[in-house]
C-alpha cells in the first residue's frame, strides 16, 4: 500500500518530503520492486499538493533510479529496488578520490564531512 504523509507547515519542501518518504518505504520493504505507484494527478489530489510538486518528486526519484516510468502503464518502483546505497557508495568513493587528489589526509576529509553534516 502506498501511503505518504506530507506536512504542509514543515521546513522541508513537500516534493522533498514525498521523495524521502518513497525512499524510506523502499528501504523498509513496504514498497517493493515492481509496485505501481499512484499517478501524479491522483497523488497530488490525495495529498493536497500541486501536480507539479508530485511530478518533481517523481522526476527526482526516477533520476535516482528509485522509480521507473513505463509510458501509459504508469510509474513503478524500479526493478533494481533501492539504488540509494549504491549511489551513496559511489559518491563517497568520488569524494575520497578528490580529497586524495588535493593532497589532504583522512582527518581533513572527515572534518569536511562532519562540517557538511552539521550544516
Automatic annotation (TrEMBL):
Pfam families for the chain: GntR
Domain HTH gntR-type: 12-80
Domain of life: Bacteria
Alphabetically ordered keywords of this record: DNA-binding, Transcription, Transcription regulation
InterPro entries: Tscrpt_reg_HTH_GntR, WH-like_DNA-bd_sf, WH_DNA-bd_sf
SUPFAM superfamilies: Winged helix' DNA-binding domain
CDD domains assigned to the protein according to its UniProt record, in alphabetical order: WHTH_GntR
Protein name: GntR family transcriptional regulator
